[in-house]
TrEMBL record:
Organism: Niabella drilacis (strain DSM 25811 / CCM 8410 / CCUG 62505 / LMG 26954 / E90)
Protein name per UniProt: N-acetylglucosamine-6-phosphate deacetylase
Any one GO biological process: N-acetylglucosamine catabolic process
Swiss-Prot/TrEMBL keywords: Carbohydrate metabolism, Hydrolase, Metal-binding
Active site: 286 (proton donor/acceptor)
The family this protein is said to belong to: Belongs to the metallo-dependent hydrolases superfamily. NagA family.
Binding site residues for Zn(2+): 136, 200, 221
An example Gene Ontology molecular-function term: metal ion binding
Domain Amidohydrolase-related: 61-394
Length: 401
């Protein structure tokens, strides 16, 4: 196998022959790419010609690169620790098949959040693509594991300042539809077709519909920190934001599929409800510091000490044992989807690639192995473990190198 350093010339037409995932399923063929873009799928070129190279991966699976919409950290690194950690994270997540991601930032006090976001915005990743910053707060109602004194009122000026601080990257906000005056800020967040996520909320149906009408389009770590509405009529099951989202075919959702954060039955229910809305169910990791490592204790920024009981376990605060993100990696999420949801590899991969690409409005260039798309791909072995990860036509991770 060629070393990574031997395959950095993206101007050379490169082919990978293996079991390629296409719209019709897996095909034993080749995918060809040049200058970071896929040129063709099939035996379109003669690899013996000049300026071409063909990489044989045998019976391995070649799938679109995974896209994580919500992740805070990996191994001993945390995005909230600053740009140095972000650079490390962008490199490490390649080994788990992530080729693009939204680094997720916890809320900070006003002023501190602007300056911190500016330090992240100068980072140019040499690993996975940064598609924007996911701001999980400060405009949320229920804190969950986040620091309570960083939660803010709806403030258009602050929204604009955060958007400016993140440039040239996009700011993808998570908001609570039941936050007072949140309808004043959603249109600002949704400008330029930027998705707005809903989370940390006990919103009622009317509040949810109002947020959706103004541009909210996705629910992140769905069911988690989405408490059940109170019973007002004995014997009558109440409806709230969860039911409103499930009933709306246009709203997409994502899940932390680690076997603890959400019951697989609930995910299956969402898949049935969203069956007529293509690509509406996604996998995320919501990974925290310590994810991908074995048991240990770590510091989750201002949120305090957290603990992972075993590799892949949920992250829990040591103070009260409450959940604080996951120890999940995206390749494990894909394997879990196959096991828990009883689906095949193509469907599980779609939930980690094409569907999140659609959420972010980049489904015309990411999430598929198809001519004209970015050459972001992952090679999986027979057990669905990551062997190679390609980003923009560059092989940036090889297992064992």
């Amino acid at each position: 196998m060629q070393a990574i350093s031997e395959l950095q010339n993206t101007n050379k037409i490169t082919g990978i022959r293996g079991n390629i995932l296409t719209d019709t399923g897996f095909q034993k063929t080749a995918v060809w790419f040049e200058n970071g873009k896929i040129r063709a799928v099939g035996e379109a070129f003669n690899a013996e010609e000049a300026n071409m190279q063909l990489i044989e991966v045998g019976e391995a699976f070649v799938v679109p690169g995974f896209i994580d919409l919500h992740m805070h950290g990996i191994h001993q690194y945390l995005i909230d620790n600053g740009p140095a950690d972000l650079k490390q994270i962008a490199q490490i997540i390649l080994q788990y098949g992530i080729t693009s991601f939204l680094p997720t930032v916890c809320p900070r006090r006003e002023g501190e959040d602007i300056s911190f976001l500016k330090t992240l915005a100068v980072v140019q990743s040499e690993g996975a693509n940064i598609l924007g910053f996911h701001l999980e707060g400060p405009f949320i109602k229920l804190t969950g594991s986040l620091v309570a004194n960083t939660i803010a009122k709806a403030d258009p000026a602050r929204v604009k300042a955060l958007i400016d601080a993140a440039k040239p990257y996009r700011s993808v906000f998570s908001i609570s539809p039941d936050l007072d005056h949140v309808t004043d800020i959603i249109p600002l967040m949704a400008a330029d077709n930027t998705p707005v996520f809903m989370t940390h909320t006990a919103a009622n149906v009317e509040q949810t519909r109002a947020a959706i009408a103004l541009g909210a389009s996705h629910a992140t770590h769905f069911y988690d920190v989405f408490p059940c509405p109170p019973v007002t009529e004995p014997g009558v099951r109440p409806c709230g934001i969860v039911e409103a989202i499930l009933a709306d075919e246009q709203i997409s959702v994502d899940f932390i599929l680690d076997g603890v954060h959400v019951d697989p039955i609930a995910v299956k229910m969402a898949m049935v409800c969203k069956a007529n809305g293509p690509g509406r169910v996604c996998l995320i990791t919501d990974s925290n510091i310590g994810a991908g490592l074995h048991a240990g204790r770590f510091v989750f920024g201002e949120n305090g000490e957290v603990e992972i009981a075993y590799k892949g376990a949920p992250v829990r605060k040591t103070a009260d044992n409450t959940l604080a993100g996951s120890g999940l990696t995206m390749d494990q999420a894909v394997r879990n989807a196959m096991q828990y949801l009883e689906i095949g590899l193509p469907e599980a991969v779609t939930m980690a690639s094409a569907n999140p690409a659609r959420v972010l409005g980049v489904s015309d260039k990411k999430g598929k192995i198809e001519a004209g798309f970015d050459a972001d791909m992952v090679v999986l072995d027979a057990d669905y473990n990551v062997v190679q990860t390609w980003v923009s036509g560059e092989r940036r991770f090889v297992r064992g190198e």
